[in-house]
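User: quick one
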Amino acid sequence: MSAVFSTSAAASRPFVFNREAAAPAGPQPEAELSEARPPQRVVSSQAFKDARLAGITPASQLAVRSAPEMVSSGIAEMDGLTGGLPRGCLTEICGSASSGRSTLLLAALAAATRRGEFSALVDASDALDPQSAADAGIELERLLWVRCQPSQPPEGRLEQLMRVADLLLESGGFGMIALDLGDIPPQNARRIPLASWFRFRRAVEHTPTVLLAVERQSIAGSCSSLLIKLASLPRGMEMESRSAQPPIPAHANLLTEVNITAELLRSRLDRKPVRSAEITFAGKTAWAG
Amino acid sequence: MPFACIFVPSFPLAAAFRGDPELRARAVAIFEGRPPLEKIFAVNESAGRLGIAPGMAKAQAELCPEVTLRRRSQLQESGAHAALLDGARSFSPRVEDAAADTAILDLAGLESLFGPLPKIAQNLFSCTAELGLEANVAVAANPDAAVLAAHGFSGVTVIPAGQEAERLGPLPLEVLFVETADDPGPSARLLEILDRWGIRNLRALAALPEVALSERLGQEGLRLQQLARGAASRTLVPVEVPLVFEEAAELEHPIVLLEPLAFLLNRLLEQICARLASRALHTQELRLTLELENFASVPRTMPPTHFSQPSPLHPPLFQRTLNLPLPMRDAKLFLKLLQLDLNAHPPGAPIAKVHLAAEPARPRPVQGGLFQPASPEPEKLQLTLARIAGLVGESRVGSLELLDTHRAEGFRMRRFHPGATTAEKTSQPGKEPCAIALRRFRPRLRVTVTFSNGELARVICPGKKEMQGGVLWKAGPWRSSGDWWEREAWARDEWDIALQHSEDIALYRLVHDLLGGGWFVEGMYD
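Assistant: Done. Structure below.
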């Protein structure tokens, strides 16, 4: 019985690593055997190591992954912070209620459709306001809107969202695919297995698609290339609450602008250490002019 | 001027084989007539070897268990006839519809387009085979000689000009009377006379003296002699082949499950796509009509629009129409789309007959630009959209269209159609301030509102704990109304309010319905 290694790396030099099998057939003198064995044992262990490492590139020879193409998020200040949104990567936008997540999402979708690309929005809570989408500048005929059934419990809607996202990524050809989990409670959203996010990351890799996820808290872990956290405060509210003067009547108030603060929590796009940076930009209401 | 003839021998059998290709390997007999007087109409070679012959009673044929019996289907035959004409029309614009099993083509001028005559004949043979028909193809200098050669010789036959008499000579006299097979009386009499004279083939008939033949058989005799010599001359009567692409199948046993139906649909779709390909056309609309049995079992929940009105004379029909955004011709894609559609809208009763029709359309003239952004492949996208519609519902996927109204939900969903938009880049992004978005709650949330000194003070939403508390900031009301001239009139006051949301402040849109009453939170600014 003999076993011969014939791997891709060692194909040209097969080694016998079984000591018994290495012995030639028929009786041999003891002295000859003792001379023959030690070098063969050394060669065998080396061969085993060679075979095990065959096809594995040493870390020193690893090629540097090319930087993904960045596209505009539709907000100049945000582009200045992150460099834009990366194609072929997952970007997470998280924040609490009224933090400006949907504003950023619609701005990114508007920028994508203005580039002439087709975009898809998978809406887990059926929360998209068509008028807001039009006000944001989205070319509506270029936007595919998938509305998960709101009658379903959060788990059911999440399942629908994941399956729809799978189908859209498989279909290809979209410039941006946005997953809106903004109203899904974090405890439910965290139940999405990490393997699903890995699958999405692999599916979107090497494609020109920007995969965007909007959620309350980060749930994709290390699968996301960019993680942006948002917070906001309506302009004028702070002054009013701290003012000693009598409150302004409601009909004299007008919501015109919201200051949104964006913080870059994680970026895997460059090889610099993780940094945290903040910017503030204003979002205006449609009636503010 | 060369002509070609495509002749399909044993046409009812060929039509049955086209509908069910697996039958080719079996002994098959086609019967017709009303029970109990059903008689065998046509048999294939294998059935003939087993002793089954045309004219035999069906009950006799049933005694032979190896023979597969099929009822003659007019639907299958009309489909096969249409396919035959489509195949012929794909080569020549001048086609004569000589019989159900015969088509004659004018090949004048086609040599420069398709190559020499033998190549054209071979291509015709291959084309009809692709359409599911085993045919004989013959090319000759006149239509009648081509027809005789197609009836007499199997496979591909090309008769050079001037050699008609020589090549047609060995054929038996029966080939002259094929067209009069429906009325065998006169032809049988003529055949008997010629047989008594010792005339057995066309060469012998062609050699008879014309005057003597005319004296004995009249003008009919002379006509037959001209045909036998391959010298008959007549004008082709071309027909305009209609652009009707329909295929149907009648089932001996009703289908209950959708899976076996898919096999049948696949076959019909492949036939239709092959016919469309032969005419260089695509389709933009597929109509599926299923004839149902046992209509009483159809669930009452099924929308009545899918069904025709049942009556004692006409069985109920289940109809589905597949509208495609772009012209396509992919049988596998159509099958998937039909499967998904039938899964979403099952017929609900056993299926006795399947009818499929395709509305022809010209292929879309699309040329991809080098600098145009990538867009989804239309065929792949259709399948994806159909699958998504199966998951979330048909009305919940598509693109948005805003309606000309100030009503809160003034929009409608429409089919997502990437081909309808032009790839034009508009203004540069990022130059203008972004617009604050509203996240809508669907359905809107009913809340209880308390006032203090005539002003909004507190909002309580029973369904959402985070949406209750004192109003930190408010703006409004903004009054709007509309559609007062219609039943769905609306009038409302809107407020923008800020509530404490855990550690942050959340902005909501609060609405007071002035007509229906009640307070609602319609959405959240985000």
